Predict the structure.
Amino acid sequence: MGITMAGAVALDLVLKHAFHRGRPVPFFGTAPSSYSFPSGHAFASLCFYGVLAGILSAHAPTPRARLFIWTCAALLVGLIGVSRIYLGAHYPSDVVGGYCAALVWVGAIGILDHVLNNRAG
């Protein structure tokens, strides 16, 4: 979890500086000073809740429990993304970009974990 989240923060910063996309005019309050694309909240939430759901579902006793875990994770991630758009902090494409980057990052970490576990075992 620590490696996933540390890498997510670093990758989010690199992507924000690579794209230099400005933020929309916020509906409430002032706009954050960072760049808009990709959404860091969308990126981090999918990384955190995706990995957490993976860990918890690996120890779930039944398929129904695994479904419940993944459903809760998906709802949390989805609501966080929608909130970023609703508040005017991001364009919808920023949130989708954050999700896509997170899927690639979590997938890479998952593959690396699988390779390292198979090599050790």
Observations:
- The longest helix spans residues 92-120.
- The chain has a mean pLDDT of 91.
